[in-house]
What does this fold into?
Amino acid sequence: MILLQVNSAAHQFPLVLYFGTIGMLVLTIGLIVFIIFHQRKVIRYQMQLQHMEQEQQKMLLNASIRLQEEERQRIAADLHDDAGPLLATARLYLNENLVNLDKTTQLQSIYNAKQIIDDTIQLIRNISHSLMPPTLKNFGLESAVNDLFQKISGSGSMNASCRFHDYRERLHPDQELIIFRVIQELVNNILKHSNASFIHLTQNLSGNKLYIRLHHDGRGITQADFDKLNKSNVGLGLKNIQSRLKLLHGRIYFEKDISQTYYKVTIEIPRTEEEQIVQPIS
Amino acid sequence: MLRLLSIYSGILPIASFFLFLSRNKKNGLWVILFYVAASFLTDFCFELFNPPNNLSFFIFSLFTILEYSFFSVFIYINFKKKIFKQIILITSFFFFAFCAISYFSAKGNFFDSLPASIESIFIIIFCIIYYYEQLNDPEVSFIYSSKKFWIVTAFLIYLSGTLFLFIYTFGLSKKEQSFYWPINMVFNTIKNLIITLAFSLPISDHQPFIKEDIFGKPPLPHYKP
It folds into this structure.
């Protein structure tokens, strides 16, 4: 009907009105179509990101579980290989006491059994200390790290030193344990892979953030390497560091020094009074 | 035929609103119901009584103000950002002032071409702002599954389709205007159909699959829900 009307009075019908209306309609429909497609694209992108994040979380969780299992296996091996034979030997000595009635032999076997039990106690203490260092529990992160570095230096294989510039207020024990484990893991990596001759740790406080920096002169990794290892199936220890720091909402940064001689690792941890902490792994 | 289709298509959204009443209780959809009812009554009165020029002009002017007000209220309710709400308030002040001046200065016109054109431009701008806000809102999952989106789209299509018509009819006689009026009828019908669709859509608000509180507080130290 409109077309009929338009045709009958075509000479009067203004082109501006005709094209203007069609133009506006095309623009409007174009806008709506663009919005719908753009939104679908954004949603698809967000879903991809979410999926990638889930994958990353899954890998971190797997790494934590694997590490926990490895730790259990190590403890089981320590108990089975060291404590087990020691206790069995002590039992043998005590058994001999029942069989042999000679007093001197009896005294000798009791003495031997006591020595073995002392060794076993020491062994179990060592295992217990490796699980939760008593220095860390009683005297805090600074003392525990000092202790760790003194032991490394004492071994003579590496010159290790550390300095805490501003650690007057202790962190929450759970936070301290997580940070200590991260430092332990980093130091272990340096000892195992870097072939470094010295290692130095510095602690500082800036604003509401705690910073810990490790310097060493061996072979190291940069942030790009770290990200790559984190996404791959290898680098279990690094994934564990990442998952531990995530609990503290902390960050880690691997880089090479400006002098290109040293590698440094910087850890940043926000200091909050009532931090929400999940129970640490291992 | 086209005139009748345009007028009586106004019944569809009203029927759809009441048919799916439980789906249409939120987001200020009742404002749109009032608007559709006002639009239908205006068209129906014109068809029935064919009022003289001065009364036509008054009814059209009143309808322009009502149309702008209803849509502004609807979009004001649905805007999330304060700045956009403020834009509506400021724009409305100028628009109403302009309508008043235009009404008293107009002489012997049949249709309020200028206020209707300005109204169209403002509403088109509001629609674009609405789309912008929705695109930047991370909570919006699928924009086209929302009733609000289709209502805004209905207004945008109707007003962008009739904008040139409203501008062009300025100073034309009633007879000349009626020659071009089918454009308005077509877009009015499209608008009513889209609003009907909007009213019949199911509620798109995101409902979480599992209520988090059924798990209770986890036994973790320092845990804060």
